[in-house]
Write a structure and sequence with these properties.
The complex is a heterodimer of chains A (519) and B (141). Chain A starts with a helix and ends in a 5-residue tail after the last strand. The longest helix of chain A is centred in the first third of the chain and has 25 residues. Chain A is of the alpha+beta class. In chain A, the strands form 6 sheets. Chain A has a 7-stranded mixed beta sheet. Chain A has a 4-stranded antiparallel beta sheet with strand order 2-3-4-5, with no helix packed on it. A 3-stranded antiparallel beta sheet of chain A has the order 1-7-6. Chain A is elongated. In chain A, a hairpin with a 4-residue loop joins strand 14 and strand 15. The model of chain A has no long low-confidence stretch (mean pLDDT 89). Chain A contains 16 helices and 23 strands. Helices cover 38% and strands 11% of the residues of chain B. Chain B has 7 helices and 4 strands; from the N terminus they run βαααββααααβ. In chain B, the strands form 2 sheets. A two-stranded antiparallel sheet of chain B has the order 1-4. Chain B has a two-stranded antiparallel ribbon with strand order 2-3. Chain B is globular. The chains are: A alpha+beta (519), B alpha+beta (141).
Chain lengths: 519, 141
């Protein structure tokens, strides 16, 4: 068997499933699939080496069609489970189409009828290849695990997934028959404990509440409890990867369970932008550009991320979960990660939820409201002292009346005016827009759906913003902020739509003007 | 009573040699007609082809097989012009089975070999109202 065939087959057979079963049985505890695969590789390597040593120790030669043998000689047939046979007769071949060879009659051990085999057959044949021990079998177990571990793990997962003897939770595997029983009473106790603490509890914390017999291994009990909790709709694992923390589904806020409609954007496409706009897009961190995939690596990971609040997030009480923001949190694979946000100014601590589907952080409504933040406000997130804490701060300033853009919806149209309004926080001047009338904006958003393209919508909004500027110029960031009042769109989509417009022209510095024809 | 399984693109098909007898067709003559020139020179008529020794491609075991089948499976069927793009679909399917020594093949495997139509199209042809060239679903004995 070729080396590649050997490794491709490891993990695919029933015998390998039984080896995995025996491994877990002996261990008496759950194991990760990569650990089971590593065990299997070690065992198969050992068995294969032993098999080859046994073959080498036998006196009879291995059968090759090109070889010649004598009557009475014993020969090993690798294609027949390494059984030995005795040559009982030899005759000439009969086939005018191929070069003459000889045919030997062989009585294989354990068979009643003899078989015939070719000998002196020099045509290409897999058994005629020189059979040294496959090179890969000379690998050390650790080298074999590094080289073939993933292949074997994939093979094994297919088999174990289809086998009811195994129980899986995330990447942990255990035997159904060894799972300690977790009855309904335990789950009710767990529910009460979580409800009482109003916090997510680790599996180990929950186990402390139960009185398990001391004979039960704690790790096996933890696995069984995790499986039982995962299969009960009352509970949800809101912990980081490989670190389950259980919370009650009904205590998770609505906006963390279901993505708020106001955050839903059309799928992002890949656009190339002029350098100037590319820099602006990079500054505006927005999950709407990610197509829901915030798992990309943020390079280099930072300890601090500056965000500029947009209207959809202000309304939903959320923030974008961009790769840079995600890098402040531990990795998580479940739908939600529950963590703590701590306001650096007030030390107020409250729960936040990083949500995979839609790539956003929920739980900020009260914090936004208490600080009267408007779209455009600066918000900084910083790495906390422990992995499940993120520090949050805005940039407060003495409340004073400032001339700012105010957005309203009038007869379904988005209109802007310049008004003096009290502002108590620092903001990006180009993106700061105070909401004059949320209900009117909802009606304008309804109307904005009639515009087929983002470019057309931008061209409709532009004159309203341009009238507030003496020079008739509007910054790209202002347009991005304004468009998001009525339609969710990522910065790249907005900036690309600007470059597509025939009515708008760039005048440098990120500013755009309406072309003469349209004025 | 065994359950009736609806054939799909993974169902195995083979040439039913008995079908030729029952339908008055001479299978050996058709096998002979499919030989390449070199093999036809060895066996000028179907009657010239007697059982020969065939070496199993994996085990080296020798089996006595009909010379026509042996030629088609081990020589003619391996030639590039044995199945051509202009050949009718039913003929190409028949030849693919000849080249495979009449070992059963699924529509997916047949498509892989002949590169004509698609597995579902091949299945439709094989499950049509009339049996073509004795090709029927293979039933494990």
């Amino acid at each position: 068997m070729a080396s590649s065939d050997f490794w491709n087959s490891v993990g695919t057979t029933q015998a390998d499933v039984e080896r995995a079963y025996a491994f877990l049985l002996e261990r008496g505890d759950a194991a990760a699939s990569r650990d089971i695969a590593a065990h299997l590789i070690r065992q198969r390597l050992l068995e294969e080496q032993k098999r080859l040593e046994e073959l080498a120790a036998r006196r009879a030669p291995l059968y090759q069609p090109k070889g010649t043998y004598e009557i009475g000689q014993r020969v090993i047939f690798t294609a027949f489970d390494n059984r030995e046979g005795v040559v009982t007769a030899i005759r000439a071949s009969e086939n005018p189409r191929v070069a003459p060879f000889q045919v030997m009659t062989v009585q294989l051990e354990g068979e009643s009828a003899p078989r015939e085999f070719a000998m002196g057959y020099t045509a290409p044949h897999p058994l005629n290849e020189d059979r040294e021990a496959p090179v890969e079998l000379t690998l050390s177990p650790e080298e074999a695990i590094a080289k073939y571990g993933e292949l074997v793990r994939t093979n094994l997962l297919q088999r174990m997934n289809a086998d009811k003897e195994f129980v899986r939770l995330d990447d942990g595997w255990f035997l159904r028959g060894l799972l300690p029983e977790i009855h309904e009473g335990y789950l009710n106790l767990a529910e009460a404990a979580i409800e009482q603490s109003n916090d997510a509890l680790r599996t180990a914390d929950l186990l402390k509440i139960f009185e398990f017999p001391p004979t039960i291994k704690r790790t096996a009990a933890a696995f069984a409890l995790n499986v039982a909790l995962a299969n009960d709709a009352r509970f949800e694992d809101v912990g980081a990867r490989n670190s389950p923390r259980w919370f009650l589904t009904h205590l998770i806020p609505e906006e963390a369970r279901v993505r708020p409609k106001i955050l839903e954007a059309a799928p992002a496409r890949a656009f190339s932008l002029p350098n100037e706009l590319e820099l602006i897009a990079a500054e505006l961190q927005d999950e709407a550009d990610l197509n829901g995939d915030a798992s990309q690596n943020a390079l280099p990971p930072r300890d601090e991320v500056l965000l500029i609040l947009t209207y959809p997030h202000r309304r939903a009480g959320t923030l974008p979960l961009t790769p840079a923001v995600r890098a402040l949190l531990p990795p998580f694979d479940h739908p939600r990660l529950r963590f703590y946000l701590v306001d650096t100014l007030t030390q107020e601590k409250f729960a936040g939820y990083a949500v995979n589907d839609g790539a956003y952080i929920a739980g900020l409504t009260n914090w936004f409201n208490a600080r009267k933040l408007s779209p455009g406000a600066y918000i900084t997130l910083k790495r906390g002292s422990d992995p499940l804490t993120v520090l949050i701060e805005h940039q407060p300033q003495r409340e004073r009346g400032l001339w700012v853009r105010v957005a309203r919806g009038v007869n379904g149209q988005l209109v802007f005016s310049q008004e003096k309004r009290p502002i108590a926080h620092k903001a990006d001047e180009e993106m700061l827009i105070v909401i004059g009338d949320p209900a009117g904006l909802d009606a304008a958003a309804q109307k904005a759906r009639e515009y087929a393209s983002l470019t057309t919508l931008l061209e409709e909004i532009f004159p309203e913003l341009a009238k507030l500027s003496g020079a008739g110029r509007v910054h790209a960031k202002t347009l991005y902020s304004a468009v998001n009042l009525v339609r969710r769109a990522g910065p790249r989509a907005v900036l690309h739509a600007l470059t597509e417009s025939r009515a708008l022209s760039s005048v440098g510095g990120g500013y755009f003007v309406l072309n003469e024809v349209r004025r | 009573m065994s359950p009736v399984v609806r054939p799909d693109t993974k169902t195995l098909f083979h040439i039913d040699t008995q079908w030729f007898e029952e339908n008055g067709r001479d299978l050996r003559a058709e096998l002979h007609a499919a030989l390449c020139e070199k093999c036809r020179a060895l066996y000028p008529t179907p009657d010239d082809a007697r059982p020969v020794d065939r070496v199993h491609p994996q085990t080296g075991q020798v089996m006595r097989v009909d010379a026509l089948w042996e030629c088609l499976a081990d020589h003619c069927g391996q030639q590039a012009d044995f199945i051509t793009p202009t050949m009718p679909l039913t003929r190409a399917i028949f030849r693919a089975l000849l080249a495979n020594g009449n070992n059963p093949m699924s529509p997916e495997a047949l498509y892989h070999r002949i590169r004509k139509s698609n597995p579902a199209g091949i299945l439709r042809v094989l499950m049509g109202a009339h049996i073509e060239d004795g090709i029927v679903p293979f039933q494990t004995p």
